Amino acid sequence: MASNTSTRAALTLAAVALAAAAAIPFLGDVPAASDPLVVYCAHDSLFSEDILREFEEQTGIPVSIQFDTEATKSLGFVNLLIREQNAPRCDVFWNNQVLGTLDLKEAGILLPYKGKGYQRIPDEYKDPDGLWTGFAARLRVYIVNTDRMEASPGAIADAAGRDDLSRMAVAKPLYGTTRSHFTALWHAMGGEELTRWHHRVREQGLREASGNAAVMKMVASGACDFGWTDTDDFYAAFDEGKPVDMLPVRLDGGATICIPNSVSIIRGTERLEEAQQLVDFLLSAQTEDALARSQSRQIPLGPVDTVRLSADVKQLRDWAQDGYDVNSIGSARAECLAWLKSEYLK
After folding, report:
1. Do 232 and 165 sit in the same domain of this protein?
2. Are 157 and 88 contained in the same domain?
3. Total tally of structural domains belonging to the chain
4. 154, 65: one domain
5. FRET pair for 25, CA 20 to 30 Å: which of 8, 128, 247, 304?
6. In whole angstroms, what is the distance from residue 23 CA to residue 44 CA?
7. Which residues have CB under 8 Å from 139's CB, separation 6+?
8. Is residue 22 part of a domain?
9. Residue 4: pLDDT over 90
């Protein structure tokens, strides 16, 4: 009798164990969570993070974003990507300009991709081999304090021609979009002429600031009458009700200095398909429209619904139609940077 009881108990325990095992999912069938797509992003997080989170929501692809808040952020990422090239950790690089991206191209760090986003961007704002593509641009502009002077080409020419330039502000050109500006000048004017001009205006008291935002603040406060900055910095002052206006900086021949964001895929990525999806998303009309409607009013380079554009962005887009070919400055950038280092890193 005891033997039958023990047998029944053992069978009961075995049945319970089998039922419990059936209730537990087989872990081997559960896919491991995929590693996120790693994005190095030099564009301001205020404007870029929502874009990248929207990509996550629409595609289900997790994204790990690394922002750099240093003043030399785009250059910092370029140096980091060069150091990591033999063991890359980044899949997609969203740069806030193009110069550093051209350095990565030369170093062989970028992968070509000509997807649907690439096709909608004009040739002057993308690499012919598909190694990088531009989108959502800014312009280099004169910011003018309208309490101090008129915002007109004639007034700016008169002010810039004075012997005393202590009322004009420019960011130190070793970094950022001011370096891009000087590289464009180097290509347009030639190195010797730019060097002579630069030495002359510094001797005439040109005010050199730590960055474009500092230039904007100097002009908006009346500490300077006018200066060079980017359109997004201009609108930061304009939206605060400061007495400012702007005009585009033009090179000889009338070309404007239009500086796009750029996106590229890093060679060695193990998430190529997902990286390509993100590139297409960033180069889409949806993304360009969202950045145009942001406070920074970035300029769509590809076709968008113009009805949705503000009057501000429509004006900027008109100016950007005269933008110089970004690819043309590639050969000038190394020479110009070497000169700038000799001027500012003595």
Report:
1. yes
2. no
3. 2
4. no
5. 8
6. 49
7. 230, 231, 248, 249, 256, 257, 258, 259, 299, 316, 319, 320, 323
8. no
9. no
Tracing tokens 């001009």 back to the chain, one arrives at 197
DSSP letter string over 185-210? HHHHH-HHHHHHHHHHHHHTT-EEES
Q: Could you read off the pLDDT of 7-18 as tens digits, one per residue? A: 333 333 333 333
Its domain, for residue 149, covers: 138-256+337-344
DSSP conformation letters of 34-70: PPPEEEEE-S-HHHHHHHHHHHHHHH---EEEEE--S
**For strand 92-95 and strand 37-41, is the pairing parallel, antiparallel, or unpaired?**
parallel
Measured CA angle at 291 (ends 285, 296), to 5 deg: 155
CA dihedral 53, 57, 58, 62 (to 10 degrees): 80
Asked if residue 75 lies in contact with residue 96, where contact means CB atoms within 8 angstroms, the answer is no
User: Encoding tokens for residue 216?
Assistant: 């904007």
On whether both 120 and 266 belong to a single domain, the answer is yes
Q: What is the pLDDT of residue 102?
A: 95
Written as one letter, the residue type at 154 is: G
pLDDT digit string, tens, across residues 236-280? 999 999 999 999 999 999 999 999 999 999 999 999 999 999 999
